[in-house]
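Q: I have 205 residues here and want to know how they pack in 3D. Can you give me a structure?
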Amino acid sequence: MANTGTQRDQAIDLLQAKGIARLSEFTDAGITAATVGRMVRAGEVNRLARGLYQLPDAPLDANHSLAEAAKRVPRGVVCLVSALAYHDLTDQLPRAVWMAIGTSDWMPKEGRPAMRIVRFTDALLTDDVLTVPIENVPVKVFGVAKTIADCFRHRRKVGQTVALEGLQEALRQRKASPAEIARHAERGGVATVVRPYLEALTANA
């Protein structure tokens, strides 16, 4: 972003470019916290949560909470029920954003949006990750087949019925092939759990 105009102008330009910005992104651009604070009090900027800001007239995507979560946890990946919902594979509306982080990553403090944090090994955290733009924010989401396998791997957290619903919908909507799901189930160590369901659902296909 070009360093021209007042700090207020620069702040607006930054928010238009990024959709949602962290306070650290303002300061990195030479915009002081005091300027941001004045803009919030004047109604020129909305404070979404501690350290997260957006323009008042910014169009809100249906997946707005995922964009907020991605800004709060830049290394995180949307997973499990939230990833199922993003891919339209469940009727569940999770009250919190499910985010995967590394085994030694910093655990975010409580705040908005509410999050359910699950720790993944580095190999599973970096496998089949899509980056999708939501309100100009790059959001990392696991792909369909990986999400199905993860739901079975964490079935005690999300519920077996949710994992099975996701599997059925992925196959019905042809968003993942049985081979892709089986491959990710193998990588996640749940091949023996997923295989009977896959065989039953594809027997008459």
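Q: Anything worth noting?
A: Residues 171 and 197 are 11 Å apart (CA to CA). The first strand starts at residue 20 and ends at 22.
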